[in-house]
Write a structure and sequence with these properties.
The structure is a homodimer. Chain A is built from eight helices and eleven strands. By secondary structure, chain A is of the alpha+beta class. The longest helix of chain A is centred in the middle third of the chain and has 27 residues. The interface between A and B is large, with 48 and 47 residues. Chain A binds a DNA duplex through helix 7.
Chain lengths: 245, 245
Amino acid sequence: MNPLIRKFEKFVRLSPIDRGMLTRAATGRVRQYGPRIDIAREGDQPKDVHLILSGWACRYKQLEDGRRQIVSFFLPGDMCDLNIFILKEMDHSIGTITPATIADVPREFLDEINAGFPRIATALWWETLVGAAIQREWIMNLGQRTASERMAHLLCEIFLRLRLVGLTEGNSCEFPLTQSDLAEATGLSKVHVNRTLQELRTGELIVLKSKTLTVPSLKHLMSAGLFHANYLHMEREGSHLDANE
Amino acid sequence: MNPLIRKFEKFVRLSPIDRGMLTRAATGRVRQYGPRIDIAREGDQPKDVHLILSGWACRYKQLEDGRRQIVSFFLPGDMCDLNIFILKEMDHSIGTITPATIADVPREFLDEINAGFPRIATALWWETLVGAAIQREWIMNLGQRTASERMAHLLCEIFLRLRLVGLTEGNSCEFPLTQSDLAEATGLSKVHVNRTLQELRTGELIVLKSKTLTVPSLKHLMSAGLFHANYLHMEREGSHLDANE
DNA sequence: CGATTTATTGAATCGACTCAATTGATGTGG
DNA sequence: CCACATCAATTGAGTCGATTCAATAAATCG
């Protein structure tokens, strides 16, 4: 099922027509990518809005000397910046982590939504605002949290975001990130990421093995990461907008 | 003059009616605040969109144990998140740094813009996208740049953003941030901020004294901070939207 | 299976931090 | 308008978290 619908339904109840519209978004121009492939590069002219249907991707920035920073992860159901085509060129790159299925949503489609699908338009704004909140939290993470807090925090965030789109099973989820990826996302060296993960493991806060993450007690991991889910704005805040079935 | 108009005019040529609308935004509910006053606090219900008319403010987040991170600065002409009232509660706080004049733009006003002022609506989207790009760059800054690169980068950004709204004079600008503010924004300790500033001073990259910043050679400071202005998207990219005078 | 990527470990180093004291500004009330 | 109080900036010394370099082990892939 389209993970975008799944996610939006957590925020606002959609009408069948709304759902049809979102299904159409996810069946138009759809592309398959291999792992570790760039979808868009810094400097490119932005074209469509990308919607991740399956697989993981990330936004990253890079300095001349090679230092790389992952600035956000795209999980299934995530979209890149709405209205990005207003800008002349990309200020960051987007690349896949795993093989991924990505729909390119053309500008006209978004115009159509804004004109006639107010609930979806609001859900898209919600998505935009949550995206911004996540970026702020990452700044907090990099600026103030210690290595293990930082790692615990990131893992909590990913776990919750995956759960929102139904990609967890109990207290486990697929976890395709390498320790290098985690290093680039947390601003730590990969050696230190390794040691930090071991610390979380010996504290029995996580089990991370063969691309699977298990969180025995989300509560404990959250407390280790000073994690407060408020910034993800996951309660059904848009209920007053519900479509009547 | 309304710094918002000034800024938007760098992106798209507005019609006299557009300008009138923006002037109205800046003369409706306007409030004066003293320095170091909270405008909104984490947990509050978001009401209006705030527009900074004069003075400096910032967004910040705080942990239980007191660690504080400034996640963005608001300079004259900046607005807080558009459509923030979609969310149930604030995930961060907003506070002034200097005394400030701030207009509260009500929801209805923004609806009006979206309905009948497409150029302004686009300019607001541009503002939103640039805001997101700045947040990403801060993540890069915190994750990858060394202390002095980081500081140089931040100073470049502030200088350019001030210049965009006409608040620089030659290579100088007012600079009300304390070293503690800089510490909270860069994720460094204030002692290290002090030493980092001294380093930039002895490299003759900045003169910073009595709340005034002078940048003898922006080019050199940019290169010290590995600064690329692309993320600010300052060229007149919206020219195809220009109003015909 | 060998080749390559990913993960792990140890040792030495360094950037940035903490603690603590001092100096310099700014501001306020008597 | 000075004296005192407060806040901001500076300096030194010692420490610690995280890094780099380098080597090895384990996992994954064609």
